[in-house]
Amino acid sequence: MNRPSTPAMPRADTPPRSGRPPARRTPPAILRLTAAVAAVALLASCTPAVPEPDGSSPAPASSSTAPPEPARTSWGPLEDDVEAAGNAVAAMSLEEKAGQVIVGFYSGVDPAAELERAAELHLGGVIIMGDNVPLSAGGAAGGGAAGEGAEGGASGVDTDELAETIAAFQDVLTTGRDWPGIVGVDQEGGLVARLKAPLAEWPTPMAFGAAGDPALTGRAQAAMDAELAALGFTMNFSPDADVTIGPADPVIGARSFSSDAHTVAEHAVAAVEGALSAGVLPAVKHFPGHGSVTTDSHVGLPVQDATAEELAARDWVPFARAAEAGAPMVMMGHIAVADLDPGVPSSLSAANYEALRGLGFEGVIVTDALNMGAVEQSAPGGTAAVGALAAGADLLLMPSDSRRAHAAVVDAVESGELDEARLDEAAVRVVALMMWQERLAGDAGAEGSAAGDSSGASSAAPASRTAHAVALEAARAAVTQVEGECGAPLVGEAIQIVGGRAEDRDRLAAAAREAGLRLGAGDVVTLLGAGSSTGNGDVVVALDAPWGLARSTGRTAEIALFGRSPESFTALVEVLTGGAAAPGTLPVAVGDHPLGHSTCP
After folding, report:
1. How many C-beta atoms lie closer than 10 Å to residue 37's C-beta?
2. Cis peptide before 60 (omega within 30 of 0)
3. Contact by Cβ (8 Å): 223, 467
4. 3-class DSSP state of 482
5. Which residue among 127, 166, 208, 279 is buried most deeply as judged by most CB within 10 Å?
6. What is the predicted pLDDT for the residue at 151?
7. CA distance 59 to 392
């Protein structure tokens, strides 16, 4: 296939490419080259407050002068991390460098084969998917296997066995290295959650848009990721910064905080800050924006017809804000942007990486899973790895065949198809990121101990207690009454539950019994499972995205719940019985109801 040429990294003073909006930066970043052992030219982003040396001798420091703050990059790691990473990468073999930029995956709960492959290929890390999660007796897998799409996860997680699996991967990934390996997971909340009970279950990201409190979003992300950190995870491919266009959006939906770009930006930044406070690396996704295309990239190649200027005013706003706030990593999706590189998935397009760098982002760019249909149709079997690296990717997520992808990268460097300096640059960014993550995790543990947790953040029990409490707070804050009298009892002493999944009905029934309601007669409460589903009843409740309410009839009330966790159903019953008013507002338009609508003032 025709591969994009290797892009030059944009400098702060480089004018924007024609047709692309000007770069958005806070202060301009200073770029410098790090001298590596093998004399490889490596790029580092410097903090703008550090002056350029002028050749003069520094004044002697006073004994009372506090030591200067270490120079930090715009995306998190210290300059010292970048220098140390440059030295480490310069000492690597070509095979080691090729592995360092690959995150592998496997099938089933037995990790033995992937552990061997990770050691053989010197992989940078591995991702845990839903079918990899070990289950306790009575646990149930819920999809989320590699290649099955975005949704699904496991309930009844055997946390002890999972922690042992993660530790085994770290033993392999850290062999011969002074930094931790990547052990990642997709844990957004809502439908995209690989790990469920006994971990806290979270409402959809759109629930936080409905709650309208970015501080709550930050606390929730911190609590979610603290549970992950306690199991040994170092990376969570979250938050979703896509701006949804509504019912025509087939895959993002309630994974988006809102249809308003600035609302999405506020919550995405809060989520990044929350994740980092827990010592887990976030990935802001999916640039150049998956919420405004109408094809699911798991199965085909979405085409984005908006111009770069239009994207900069909508889809790219959250990514620019995240870059400005110091996000360490952004995920590049598989979307063909007609105005940048027609017909080419963004993950293989130099123009799309340049557009992201033009927003001021200088951190790690990870591809979306390379085994997805949008890429596999044109570059099957892991062959997309070289094209993605050449275009500007730093980290290759889930090539369909890691061994073939690794070999392709090595062969491309040896043949001259891929500039080894591009591979070095990617590997340095990844290594510096993981060196920084190790300190973040240590700081999170120290803060947990200082707050009164003698076992620190690595203990699962305190993290779990906090997460369940915050999950209930978030569920209550999100409930939005779209129709009906605010604060009044919406049902009588008994209810009938129809619609939704069996698990949804069981959870609502349990919450109703806990509140003293009888079941099997009385007012009909109809649950809408998918965002586009419809139904009629005395009270109609949308569990996911709320768009189906526009074509439903609730004789007494219509409610957007934005979640199907036990906590969400507890919050729903509180509103149904009049015990609480619904505090949320619509984060998207629903039929004739505009964004921001609620019957509760």
Report:
1. 12
2. no
3. yes
4. strand
5. 208
6. 57
7. 42
Helix, coil or strand: residue 347: helix
Q: Which of 356, 357, 345 is nearest to 383 (CA)?
A: 345
Nearest-angstrom CA–CA distance, 234 and 460: 15
3-class secondary structure, 334: coil
Q: Residues 371, 376, 382, 387: is their CA dihedral positive or negative? A: negative
Alpha helix stretches (DSSP H) within 302-366: 308-313, 317-324, 350-358
Query: In terms of residues, how long is the chain?
Result: 601
368 given a catalytic annotation? yes
Ramachandran bin of 415, using left for φ above 0, alpha for ψ from -120 to 50, beta for the remaining angles: alpha
In angstroms, how far is CA 238 from the centroid of its own chain? 1
Percent of the chain with pLDDT over 90: 78
Instruction: Convert the pLDDT of each residue in 332-373 to its tens digit.
Output: 999 999 999 999 999 999 999 999 999 999 999 999 999 999
Indicate if the pLDDT at residue 61 is higher than 80.
no
- By three-state DSSP, how is residue 122 classified? coil
What is the pLDDT at residue 445?
81
**Mean pLDDT for the stretch of residues 549-578:** 98
Say which of 298, 468, 593, 597 is annotated catalytic.
298
Question: Is the Cα torsion angle 564, 147, 97, 35 positive or negative in sign?
Answer: negative
459-481 confidence digits (pLDDT tens): 567 888 999 999 999 999 999 99
Bridge partners (DSSP) listed for residue 30: 46
CB 401 within 8 A of CB 381: yes
**DSSP of 252-282, one letter per residue?**
-GGGSS-SSHHHHHHHHHHHHHHHHHTT-EE
d(CA 489, CA 495): 12
* pTM score: 0.87
Side chain identity, residue 410: V
What 8-state DSSP symbol labels residue 202? -
pLDDT at 446: 75
- Enter the DSSP assignment of 348: G
Phi-psi sector, 138: left (phi>0), alpha (psi -120 to 50), beta: left
Nearest Cα to Cα of residue 313 among 20, 17, 13: 20
Share of the chain above pLDDT 70, in %: 84
Q: Distance between CA 90 and CA 42 in Å, rounded?
A: 10
Residue 267 is among the residues annotated as catalytic for this protein: no
Question: Do the Cβ atoms of 396 and 101 come closer than 8 Å?
Answer: yes
Give pairs for 511-515: CB < 8 Å, separation 24+: 511/566, 511/569, 511/570, 511/572, 511/573, 512/573, 514/570, 514/573, 515/573, 515/574, 515/577, 515/579
Q: Which two tokens stand for residue 373?
A: 């249909």
Question: To which residue do tokens 């409905």 refer?
Answer: 210
3-state secondary structure of 195: strand
**pLDDT tier at 137, thresholds 50, 70, 90:** confident
- Element spanning 473, H or E: helix 460-478
Sheet harboring 480-483: ordered strands across?
A: 480-483, 553-560, 536-542, 523-528, 494-499, 518-519
Would you say 26 and 360 are in contact if contact means Cβ atoms under 8 Å apart? yes
- Residue burial 260-287, b: 16+ Cβ < 10 Å; e: rest: bbebbbbbbbbbbbbbbbbbbbbbbbbb
The active-site residue out of 368, 453, 538, 544 is 368
pLDDT digits (tens, 9 = 90+) for 11-24: 333 333 333 333 33
193-199 average pLDDT score: 94
d(CA 372, CA 382): 11
Q: Are strands 102-104 and 125-128 parallel, antiparallel or unpaired?
A: parallel
User: For residue 215, what are its two tokens?
Assistant: 């501080």
